[in-house]
Automatic annotation (TrEMBL):
HAMAP family: Nuclease_YqgF. GO terms for molecular function: hydrolase activity, acting on ester bonds; nuclease activity. CDD domains: YqgF (cd16964). Residues 1-24 are annotated as: Disordered. This is Putative pre-16S rRNA nuclease. Belongs to the YqgF HJR family. Residues 20-121 form the YqgF/RNase H-like domain. Could be a nuclease involved in processing of the 5'-end of pre-16S rRNA. InterPro entries: RNaseH-like_sf, YqgF, YqgF/RNaseH-like_dom, YqgF/RNaseH-like_dom_sf.
Length: 164
């Protein structure tokens, strides 16, 4: 098995769980942004920001969000450099994804390429006139929306290709 740091992003495909809500997760060192889709998997919207802690309370909260939203799939952002390399942030995301997967099985937890989502989220908030000090509370959710929306768009494309 490949080293966790070398894990590659998943891609939507034939193992798609079908209709239902999906959650997107942006893993940060201090906060975890969470987004949710509509049941048809068309639009991602911000859901919540979860504070990380050393006791694992953040994992319990994520499990609760999966259950409350009846999520059929969870998509965790996998940070990669533009040179397609992993670092400590990627390792952290993989570890959280694996820990969450063990707690919510059989609901699948996928890893999705999240290059530049935080940068894009910060730019979007800045362009929307959100002051820098207020961005911190929102940027993780906006990044989670970007991760999930990219997955939903790829999913629609993959399912369309299967139907053709």
């Amino acid at each position: 098995m490949a080293d966790d740091a070398d894990r590659r992003p998943d891609r939507p495909g034939p193992d798609d769980p079908g209709r239902g809500r999906r959650l997107g997760i942006d893993v940060g060192t201090v906060r975890i942004g969470v987004a949710a889709s509509d049941p048809d998997g068309i639009l991602a919207t911000p859901l919540e920001t979860v504070q990380r802690d050393k006791t694992g309370r953040h994992l319990r909260k994520l499990v609760k969000l999966v259950e409350e939203n009846e999520a059929v799939e969870v998509v965790v952002g996998l940070p990669r450099t533009l040179a397609n390399r992993s670092g400590s942030s990627a390792q952290d995301a993989v570890e959280l994804a694996d820990a969450l997967s063990a707690r919510i099985a059989p609901t699948p937890v996928r890893l999705a390429d999240e290059r530049l989502t935080t940068v894009t989220a910060q730019r979007s908030l800045r362009e929307a006139g959100v002051r820098a000090k207020n961005q911190r509370a929102m940027v993780d959710q906006v990044a989670a929306v970007g991760i999930l929306q990219n997955w939903l768009d790829q999913r629609r494309s993959a399912l369309r290709d299967v139907d053709e």
